[in-house]
Amino acid sequence: MTAEEEVVNGGAIEKPTLGARLLGANTFWIGLVLIALCVVFGVLEPTAFLTLFTVQTLLIETAVLLVLSVGMTFVIITGGIDLSVGSVLIFSGMVSAKAMEWVSGGSSTNAGWGVILFGLVVAIVAGTAWGILNGLLIAAAKIPPLIVTLGTLGAALGAASLLNNGSDIRTLPSTMRTTIGYGTSFGYVPNLVIVAVVLTLIGAWLLHTTVFGRHTFAVGSNAEAARRSGIGVTRHLTSIYTLTGALAGVAGFMSLAYFGSTTISAHSTDNLNAIAAVVMGGTSLFGGVGTVLGTVIGVFIPAVLKKGFNIIHVQDFWQMIAVGAVLIAAVWFDQQRRRSRNR
Amino acid sequence: MSEPILSLRGVNKSFGPVHVLHDIDFTVRAGEVTALVGDNGAGKSTLVKCIAGIHPVDSGEILFDGKPVHIHGPRDAAALGIEVVYQDLALADNLDVVQNMFLGRERLSGFLLDEAEMELAARRTLASLSVRTVKSVRTPVSSLSGGQRQTVAIAKAVLWDSKVVLLDEPTAALGVAQTRQVLDLVRRLAEQGLGVVLISHNMNDVLEVSDRIATLYLGRMAAELPTRELNHSQVVELITAGRSGDLGLARPDVVTI
Ligand SMILES: Nc1ncnc2c1ncn2[C@@H]1O[C@H](COP(=O)(O)OP(=O)(O)OP(=O)(O)O)[C@@H](O)[C@H]1O
Ligand SMILES: [Mg+2]
């Protein structure tokens, strides 16, 4: 070995081959599971499962959860948890609907784009505010995330209900519903899905290629080491919960556009669904490990199971059991793999 | 005698009711290795953390290059050119070697992390430390041995263009050959004009490699003397009793007279 080679290699360096890295990645295995599911349903009911309509509805129905789950990925990588996302979603949607009614002076059904954009900004601001509250209580006041977000889960839902005396708002700008809610672009692609994809790509970019992402992994891996390396851990954690709150705000607006209602009672398991998706996708609940791609796969596994079971006329309840089993199996496999590697 | 680059004057530090550092005077000189010795719990790591900005000092002042400075955090210390290898290493287990070495000071190209550049620099530094046991700079630190982790922590500290390097028991987990490497490195850093502080419980290493020896005894600076004026048993006495003959802390009864 020449001296130059040695410098470049930093002493004997072997790069793990691409194949070895793939096999070692949790994302790879869970991705295989997803593909297998699609193949199985596709073979069982090719005419019903592999249709444009099925794919479109599948994507639309997962769009809102995907946005919540991207935020949840960041939180779980820091070793935290956010139970409040579903309630923050409802709160943001409610405040946004109220604000749009208010600027329209009554029902906002015929409102134009100005009002709709105002509604979007209000939803984002509302979600961000809850995120900042979560972040400050967790990072600065050092209250465990489970407790803080359990508290804000109840508080945000309560506040949303108070705003309209516990009932839903169903009069929303029809333009918003027909464009963002169930409009399509390029002929086939639902606009709601485009929004979700763009946010997911931004999330992946932020997590995997920027300093912000790197520090997220560092804080979740060893907060004290991060602090000693000069990373502002308190600030970083606060901004991550803020980001998650903001995404929940956007999700609230998307939900509003899709359902045409504030759907107060429809999101009580969103938080758990998001956590399940993130964890199935290979993100460690202990922090320091995770990918956005894994989360995307984790979001689609329950969705594909549900669609598939519907199509082959298996009762919906089996989907819940199957998702539970996949979740536990995914975490179990992950732990086994880690143990064998650390030995 | 070379110039003091870093000096502490009358530094006190308490954790709640526990008074850990008492009126510490301590000087680090450019181009010299200052050994910091003392029994377990004497306060060596605490002193290092005060210099690194991890713990704020209660009173006293820190001079860098003769000027009083306020070090409020690790960033301030790094900006002055102070690097630290902590006793517990403080590495992020899930991150790989390169990511750890550049943690908090990542290199960018535009808006994005410059992975290739960081990897190359990390490899150069590891090669200059003659590290051959780390298989890949892209393996997570969690899968490295104790000694390899320690090497990564040291590499992380020498990667930067620093003026003072504090090493808190850097050879504790190392094998014979690797210890040799680190001791040579310590000398080399001093010859390059850096102020080096070496904490170690190994007296042979300390006597061999240091220019001055500072002894902490129960949180007080018992003595700070040139290595050539001390022998093995004197250092041991200073560590265990705080004094040796005329050296070190005055006898309590002498003080009362
Ligand atoms: N964060 C802390 N909170 C409270 N007490 C502390 C803290 N850090 C250190 N101490 C106390 O300060 C004293 C000095 O500890 P320190 O770690 O500085 O010793 P040391 O000289 O480095 O010992 P060793 O050789 O074992 O590493 C000990 O009594 C320890 O219990
Ligand atoms: Mg110590």
Provide a brief overview of the structure.
The complex is a heterodimer of chains A (343) and B (257). With 343 residues, chain A is mainly α.
What's the topology here?
The complex is a heterodimer of chains A (343) and B (257).
Chain A: H1 3-9, H2 18-24, H3 26-44, H4 46-49, H5 52-77, H6 85-104, H7 113-140, H8 145-163, H9 174-181, E1 184-185, E2 189-190, H10 191-209, H11 211-221, H12 223-228, H13 233-259, H14 270-280, H15 292-311, H16 316-342
Antiparallel strand pairs in A: 1-2
Chain B: E1 4-15, E2 18-29, E3 33-38, H1 44-52, E4 59-64, E5 67-69, H2 74-80, E6 82-85, H3 97-101, E7 108-109, E8 112-113, H4 115-128, H5 146-158, E9 164-168, H6 176-191, E10 195-199, H7 203-209, E11 212-217, E12 220-226, H8 232-241, E13 243-244, E14 247-248, H9 252-256
Parallel strand pairs in B: 3-10, 3-11, 6-9, 9-10
Antiparallel strand pairs in B: 1-2, 1-4, 4-5, 7-8, 11-12, 13-14
The complex binds adenosine-5'-triphosphate and magnesium ion.
